[in-house]
Specification:
By secondary structure, the protein is α+β, with helices and mostly antiparallel strands. Helices cover 24% and strands 30% of the residues. It has helices at residues 29-52, 121-135, 193-201, 241-246, 251-259, and strands at residues 2-5, 8-11, 69-73, 97-101, 107-113, 116-118, 140-147, 156-163, 166-174, 184-190, 209-213, 223-230, 233-240. The radius of gyration is 32 Å and the shape is globular.
């Protein structure tokens, strides 16, 4: 049986009922352990404090220069990546909502906005309502969707339309708790002509240029999507939360600011 006291190492063989002298027996093991634990705690606290103060461990704040800002002007390139998975021959929920089979073999739906596929449930619910409005000859429609963070479905949308000089706004909220295939619910219709009038006054429906940032800011950040159909002409654009933050003077950003829910801001 090995024993240690201070800097002395002694090996004893205890047999034959031999009892060794007291100096070789530890009486304060518990006291020594607690004392060492006390010093260890403060050593670790000091160690991690010093590490966190080092510059290499400090989180660098994103700094955007004028060279990082771009203006994307393109009205022909659309997202057709999943188009082959959409079965346009099967029964659809509306004129622009099609069924498809996902990678897990489950049947789901996709919506088409301005010849681009969208799989968010809020977009699908809004597309069904939009198709219904178009059938009723509504020719001024604007849809806004705020995806709070893109590592899972969430968020809300606001659908604006104008008919007979009356502006309506429909709130559509994503709700993961409902058992339906499309987990989005339509809420109350209200009167809100400020945002739609701003959109029309600034002719955003004919603006094909959207500001962007080339530098990577944050993963799974928020996403703002806007779609409009005015006088049978479609337009759409998407901006990240960072782009909305850095392009405050742009009219597309200002329109988003009129509709964004401040309680659910980035």
């Amino acid at each position: 049986k090995s024993r240690m006291m201070g800097d002395y190492h002694v090996r004893f063989c205890e047999r034959g009922k031999v009892k060794f002298l007291l100096p070789t027996r530890h009486k304060h093991v518990t006291h020594n352990y607690m004392k060492n634990k006390f010093y260890l705690k403060y050593f670790l606290l000091f160690f991690f404090t010093m590490i966190s103060s080092c510059k290499i461990f400090k989180k660098k704040e994103a700094f955007i220069t004028e060279n990082d800002k771009i203006m994307v002007c393109n009205d022909t390139t659309k997202n057709r990546y999943y188009r082959t998975k959409i079965d346009t021959l099967k029964q659809r929920l509306s004129n622009n909502v099609f069924p498809y089979i996902d990678i897990n073999g489950k049947s789901k739906y996709a919506s088409i906005f301005d010849d681009s596929e969208h799989y968010h449930d809020v977009d699908i619910k809004a597309r069904i309502v939009i198709d219904s409005l178009i059938k009723r000859k509504t020719d001024t429609i604007v849809f806004y969707r705020h995806w709070l963070h893109t590592n899972g479905f969430n968020g809300y949308g606001k659908l604006l339309w104008k008919k007979n000089n009356v502006v309506n706004e429909l709130l559509i909220v994503y709700n993961d708790s409902i058992p339906e295939t499309i987990k989005a619910v339509e809420e109350k219709i209200s009167k809100n002509d400020i945002a739609l009038n701003f959109y029309l006054a600034n002719d955003i429906n004919n603006n094909k240029c959207t500001p962007g940032i080339t530098k990577f800011i944050i993963s799974h950040g928020s996403s703002h999507f806007v779609y409009s159909k005015i006088n049978n002409k479609e337009n759409s654009y998407t901006m990240s939360g960072s782009e909305v933050l850095y392009f405050k003077d742009n009219t597309k950003t200002q329109f988003i600011e009129l509709l964004i829910d401040n309680k659910k801001r980035d």
